[in-house]
Every structure is written in structure tokens, then in C-alpha cells.
Amino acid sequence: MVGVVACGSVSSIKALWETRIRRVQEEQQEEQRRRTAGGGATGRLSVCLWEDRAALSRLKQKLQTEDGRLVLRIEQEDWKSLPGCLLQLTQVQEWQIHRTGLQKIPHFISSFQNLLVLDLSRNGVTEIPQQIGQLTRLRELMLSYNRVQEVPEALSGCESLERLELAMNRDLNWLPDQLRNLKKLQHLDLSMNDFSCLPDCVVALPALEWLDMGGNRLQHLPDDIHRWVCLFNL
Q1: Hey, what's the torsion of the CAs at 205, 207, 210, 215, to 10 degrees?
Q2: Which residues in the chain belong to E strands, given as ranges?
Q3: Closest C-alpha among 190, 151, 148 to residue 167
């Protein structure tokens, strides 16, 4: 009987130590997993930082000074999106980005308060972000030969805008009435789109001197069209 008790005690002690050993091993494995995950995150962060530095260096190579303006000029390269590191170049006054496949105007565009000219012609832009309205000093916006389907009301906030080009966006057929508030707009190109009539906001533009509506589906013109003949290319 005594032998049975002793055997039972040894078995209990053995089981207890095996449990403790398993627990220590599991804790060590968990700690190793955490270290590995942390190292992976650090590695990814390092890669992202390296990519940002490389992109920023590449962007700086595209800077030029023209007519006293600092211009970002990118032509016929693959830039479907613009990296966040571009925010380190907010002193740029003019963007000239053509034939790059750019698909989106970044929302951080509002940080470029010095921007006077935004020329993104011949890309793949589908949307004008609401943040565009915060560029109160912007004078020229060129988005011809893109895929813009809608112009936001917020564009009326660009109170210094003098030139707006939206030719050949194909499905564009409407402008928000708020654009009549662009008191300085002189040049407007809406050619080769899908307008069936002249938007009321266009008729109300007080400083308009040049308007191109050629290549649309115009079915109705203002009654006082004779007053506009000198402006139109219909």
C-alpha cells in the first residue's frame, strides 16, 4: 500500500513539472513570435521610409524654376498616384503633370496654398476632390483629356480662378450653379463633352471672355445668343 502511495506521489510531481516545462516553452515561443512580428513591422517601416526618401528625391529632380515660379514638371512617366512625401514641397507654385496615368488628385492638395497653376491634362483623373476649393490663390486649372464626370460645388471656392479647361472628359454634362461665383473666370473650355445646353452658371459669369463648347450635343442656346457670339466656339 505504501508503494502505491509513493508511486502516486512521484507521478503527480512528474505531471506538475511537465506542466511547468510546457508553460515555460509556450511563453518562450510567444515571446519569439512577438519579437519576430516586431522585427517585421520595423522592417516594413524601414522599407516605407526608404521608399518615401527615394520618391522625394525623384520628385525634387522634377523641380524647375520658370518665370520666377517653382514648377513641378513630370512628363510621360508612370505616376498613377502622388506620394504623401510631396507635402514636403508645398512651396511649389505650379504643377505640370502630363501623360503619367495619374488617376487621382490627392486630398492633401489643399496644403498647397501657394499653388497658382494646376495642369493635369492628359491623364486618367476621374474625380476633382472637395479640397480643391481651399486653393483660393489658384488661377489656372487644366483637366482636359481626363475622365472627370462631375465638377464639385467646392470649386467655386477657388475665387482667383481665371482659366478652367475641362475639354474631352466625354461624360461631363453638368456644372454646379455655384460656379457663377467665379467672378474672375475669363477662359472656359468645355469642348468635346456631353452638354446638351449651356449651363446657367456659365451665362452668369461676369468676367468671361472666351468659351469653347464645340463638340457637345447642344440643343438649346440662350435667347440673347447674339450678345455671346464673340465669345463662343460652338
Answers
A1: -10
A2: 63-66, 69-75, 94-98, 117-119, 140-142, 163-165, 187-189, 210-212, 232-233
A3: 190
Q: Which three cell numbers stand for residue 114?
A: 501657394
Cα–Cα dist 198/174, whole Å: 9
Instruction: Describe the strand order of the beta sheet including 210-212 as a list of residue ranges.
Output: 63-66, 69-75, 94-98, 117-119, 140-142, 163-165, 187-189, 210-212, 232-233
Rounded Cα gap, residues 49 and 33, in angstroms: 24
Bridge partner list, 233: 212
Phi-psi region of 99 (alpha: psi -120 to 50; beta: other; left: phi over 0): left
**Per-residue confidence band for 30, with pLDDT thresholds at 50, 70 and 90:** low
The H or E element spanning position 23 is helix 2-60
pLDDT at 3: 47
